[in-house]
Amino acid sequence: MRRWTEQDAPDRERLPWWWDATHYAIDIRLFADSDGDGIGDLDGLRNRLGYLELLGIDALWLTGVAMTGVGPNVGDPRQAAAILESFELLTAAAHDCGLRVTLDIGADISDLRQPRAQQELVRTLRFWTDRGVDGFRLALSRRGGVTREHAPNGLDLETSRAIRAALADESDRLIGSLVEEQQSSRGVWDVDFNRSLAETEFEAGSIREKISKELAACREFGTRPGWIVSGRSTPRQVTRYGGGALGRARAQAMSLVLLALPGVVCVDSGEELSLPEVVEDDNRAGELLGARVPMPWEGGKPPYGFSDSPTSCLPVPEDWWELTVEAQLESAESTLSLYRQELELKRAARAGAEAEESIDAEGLFDEDTVEWYGAPNGCLAFRRGVGGVICALNTSENQVPLPPGEPLLSSTPLVDGQLPPNSAAWLSAN
């Protein structure tokens, strides 16, 4: 099995497309509705690709594709024909925009040691690669809740080699898996997607510890880190970090930390708008539950351009008009504008071009080591590679001095050259 390491790829021309890619995770049902039934669909997503190109991400990470009724094992192929055509139109249009397409694929560790199960997984992956898919994140599970004690070796290298051998002509395809800390299936694919940061409080010491552990594990196993700070299984950052203006400031700060790290980065759809969880009263359980709702695109009332229908699959709050894509594109101070600046700097660095304000971005994100700096209590600072971007985060209640360097970008305005509480900044070491 080929595993990518720093030694395997000493120059950028040899790196696979996914090496430092920013993925944008999309639940298709909640993104954009094209046929007025109140449920997001593939054509709705295709119609909004211009926004994703404008945002500056590298790849679409599609979740919920199985819900659309398309795949290699559909019972009625005629029923799936129109959906499959929409999917192929989507991948073609995404590629025309310079975007890659990745999918979530479920896989049972308990079965994958069997040749027939391996063949079935390869068949599934080839079904999608034939339709333009560029990569996969395998959602590994154990049927019936089998524990590590019952399957201590997880998915072993021999099994992964067999699957890789069957996909030998697809060497540029991303194959990653979601791993838990100490999970035994670590290191068998290209990327280990880890959600430890999605379960970490907004506290510099904890954040540094999680980053250090993940980087060390990826070095040990020879895989690329995959960073996730939000997802369907965890509350959105704004809500998790305290809600309101405080949660929004902290979430914006974490976006700078996330996008400065080496590896594959996953941005959850709506993070770039600082969308919170929508809290609903669950009468059955007597609890308040957080939920994701359709993407707010434009206008002054629900469903904010998500659908031509006045109602959508889930209700969108009445007070979200300031959070729409339209409203935030018009504001230089919005979360969306911040994300666009971050991603523009990363892409400019990758292309070896100059970013805004005549700052030479070449080399800022090229190297994969992280050098930690000394920092005040409640703060962290690290440099990406030698002479690369410096990231400083302040989770304390006091403003603090910045590390030496030329400020490039900050999540909130600096105060007398210092970093305010609940904020982060990028600096150039040059």
From TrEMBL:
Residues 25-292 form the Glycosyl hydrolase family 13 catalytic domain. Transmembrane segments: none annotated. One of its GO terms (molecular function) is alpha-amylase activity. GO terms for biological process: oligosaccharide catabolic process. Coiled coil: none annotated. Pfam families: Alpha-amylase. It comes from the Bacteria. InterPro entries: GH (IPR017853), GH13_cat_dom (IPR006047). This is Alpha-glucosidase. The lineage of its organism: Bacteria, Bacillati, Actinomycetota, Actinomycetes, Actinopolysporales.
